[in-house]
Amino acid sequence: MKTIDKAHGRLEVRSVQTSTELNTYLDFPHVGQVFRIERTVTHCKSGRTHTETVYGLTSLSPRQADARRIGELARGHWEIENRLHWVRDVTYDEDRSQVRTGAGPRALTSLRNFAISCLRLAGCTNIAKGLRHLARNWRWPLRLLGI
Fold first, then answer.
1. How many domains does the chain fold into?
2. Which is higher by pLDDT, 25 or 49?
3. How far apart are CA 82 and CA 36, in angstroms?
4. Does any domain span residue 123?
5. Are 73 and 56 in contact (CB under 8 A)?
6. Across residues 117-141, what is the average pLDDT?
């Protein structure tokens, strides 16, 4: 299965291949199939090309997930990174936090995740913009929480 996408100044070609030929050879419980994903990214302005190959295995059988579905699942994994971790890293500048001991880091992460979730449920697509709005309108978070 092959897909081609052009966005953000890049042309990305993805190829996904799956196989059950290694299932009896692999010493891995519940293996359903192995897969190979090859990504070739060409930067439109510079013409520079980068190729990356990723190998993996899944417990999903070919009937449960064909090559197209494996590709979708692999791409969907990055949605979490882009929608949550990136927001925490960039908008909240979490990587430079000085809170490092005890339950503090986990508590702050939970509070940040809660705030991001509330803003997304309220329809915010830009968390930074939503936070600026909250800073100016202090009653809005109370309404979000039903208070």
1. 1
2. 49
3. 23
4. no
5. no
6. 90
CB atoms within 10 A of CB 102: 8
Given this model, what pLDDT does residue 142 score? 86
Neighbours of 133 (CB within 10 A): 15
> How far is CA 103 from each of CA 85, 110, 131, rounded to the nearest angstrom?
19, 11, 25
Identify whether 97 is part of a domain: no
From residue 139, alpha-carbon distances to 49, 62, 135, 142, 146 in Å are 50, 52, 10, 5, 11
| The predicted structure's pLDDT at residue 32 | 96
- The DSSP element (H or E) to which 127 belongs, if any, is helix 127-136
Could you tell me the sign of the dihedral formed by the alpha carbons of 102, 99, 94, 117, in that order? Answer: positive
Distance CA 117, CA 43 (A): 34
Domain span at residue 9 reads: 1-64
Determine the pLDDT at residue 1. 92
CATH number of the CATH domain containing 50: 2.20.130.10
Q: Is residue 29 part of a domain?
A: yes
Distance CA 83, CA 105 (A): 20
- Asked if residue 4 belongs to a domain, the reply is yes
